[in-house]
Amino acid sequence: MDFNELVGPDLVLLAKADLVKCEDGAELLLEPGLAVIAFEHNKYDDGTPEYLYAQGLAERNDPTVNGEWTRNAKWCCRFNGGVQVSESPI
Asked: Which end of the chain is more exposed for a tag (fewer CB within 10 A), N or C?
């Protein structure tokens, strides 16, 4: 996922389809209210890793509320506690 696609202060676009791949390779069927950890792994030019993550609940995207630019996403993650940053995987 991409934390540059924040819809609001506590909402990020999560997935384009109902079935997503977890970090361990397992597949997961998204449904409203499902507890998820949304994450993004980055590596800077100097090789420094950065892991961004947020814990929240899956919810269907509503482009009429979230904006037409979100139309390609079927799912969002409504999170609390903000986006966390770590130098190693969670």
From this structure: C
Instruction: Give pLDDT tens digits along the chain (90 positions).
Output: 678 778 998 999 999 999 998 888 899 999 999 999 888 888 889 988 888 889 999 999 999 999 999 999 999 999 988 888 887 776
Q: In terms of DSSP bridges, do strands 35-43 and 49-60 run parallel, antiparallel, or are they unpaired?
A: antiparallel
pTM for the complete prediction?
A: 0.83
Taking alpha carbons only, the member of 4, 48, 51 closest to residue 23 is: 51
Q: In this structure, what token pair is assigned to residue 38?
A: 């949304």
CA distance between the termini of the chain: 15
